Amino acid sequence: MKKIIGSALAIAVASLLMTGCGGESKQVIRLSHSQIETHPDHLGALAFKQVVESKLGDKFEVQIFPNATLGANEKVLELIKQGSVQYLVVSTANIESFDKLYAIFSIPYLFTSESAFEKFITDPAILEQLSVNSAKTGFEPVAAFTAGTRNFYSKTPIKSVADLKGKKFRVQAGPVNVAMMQAFGAAATPMSFGEVYSALQQSVIDGAENNELALTDQKHGEITKFFSYDMHQMCPDMLVASNAFLTKLSADERKVFDEAAQAAQKAEFAAWHDSIAKAKAKAQEMGVQFIEVDVNEFRNKVLPLHEQILGETPDLKKLYDEASAANAAAAK
Ligand code: GCU
User: Fold this and answer.
1) DSSP 8-state symbol, 236
2) pTM for the complete prediction?
3) Angle of CA points 205, 299, 203, to nearest 5°
4) Residue 4 φ then ψ, to 5°
5) pLDDT value of position 233
6) What single DSSP character describes residue 192?
7) Do residues 6 and 39 make contact, with C-beta atoms less than 8 angstroms apart?
8) CA 55 to CA 217: how far, in whole Å?
9) Residue-level pLDDT at 321
């Protein structure tokens, strides 16, 4: 409740500041994300702001809210629906409950390489397919950011699947994540990103799973000293836009906002691999050990889920086949 009031207040203050300046009435565009200001998602947001304001600065001002200051993604999605927040960077796992198509990215080991994943998520035809239900969901995906590979990290080393047994791991929301952890023989504890640090600290969970940046940016590496490269998922962060906002734009304005989304994607990708290398080095200084595991052992354990998920959600089949094609093309 406090958080909701906090978000509403932040928005109200921001609006007052804008309209209070000499009566100009620029429209404030709020872009929310849950990362710190050095994270590639934030650099993407800055590129977005730059394009919008350089081309339409007389009409719009983009305000970026990092660190989930407007609230956790689940809450901000409601504001996106209402149109009081216009853009949000959100993991596909968080929007699965609005549209099952996004569950494609929760399928463990969907992609066989990071390059296949990157090619897939930057393909405009894929974004178009993910947009089909946007009138219903209230938001449209306008760009996809890479978020690397998700891996287990914990207080005790995970060297094989057996080491996961009976352990509690924080996962992102969504039934596929829960099924995945069950298949691994562990227990899933879904919770918001911002709650993970204290859950680790208080031993509510034994570990979590994410890319390397969680160790440093979110300081999880202060508590969990073992990070295993099992590479179970690649989920993008989507830049989604409020439909209520998009439908009010003129065609020319829409063109600029789409161009800004593309610039954001480019800037995010450009920063990604370097950020990961730096995070890894920093985590090692924090005392985190990086463990190479037999990825095939992990993969084989959860592979039966592919058929199960496609059986339960046949709408995913087309995207699944396209992901397989991207894997084959990247392997050439
Ligand atoms: C990554 C991802 C976020 C997501 C987070 C999580 O950091 O970039 O969008 O929210 O993982 O695990 O919740």
Assistant:
1) P
2) 0.93
3) 5
4) -65, -45
5) 98
6) -
7) no
8) 32
9) 98
The average pLDDT across 175-186 equals 97
d(CA 160, CA 186): 12
Handedness of CA 156, 160, 162, 166 (dihedral sign): positive
Taking the centre of ligand 1 as the mean of its atom positions, its distance from the CA of residue 211, in whole angstroms, is 8
4 has pLDDT over 60: no
Which amino acid is present at 173?
A
- Joined together, the tokens standing for residue 139 give 């938001």
Residue 197 has pLDDT above 90, yes or no: yes
Q: What is the pLDDT of residue 20?
A: 44
3-class DSSP state for residue 160?
Answer: coil
- The tokens for 240 are 């989604």
**Which atom of ligand 1 lies closest to the CA of 170?**
12
Read off the amino acid at residue 311: G
Any idea which residue has 């300046």 for tokens? 21
Buried b (16+ CB within 10 A) or exposed e, 40-78: bbbbbbebbbbbbbebbeeebbbbbbbebebbbbebbbe
Segment 79-103 shows an average pLDDT of: 97
Q: Which protein residue has the closest C-alpha to ligand 1 atom 11?
A: 210
**Taking the chain, what is the end-to-end CA distance rounded to the nearest angstrom?**
52
Gap between the Cα atoms of 135 and 244, Å rounded: 9
Q: How many residues in total does the chain contain?
A: 332
Q: Which atom of ligand 1 is nearest to the CA of 41?
A: 8
**Rounded distance from Cα 317 to ligand 1 centre (Å):** 25
Nearest to 72 by CA among 177, 175, 194, 178: 194
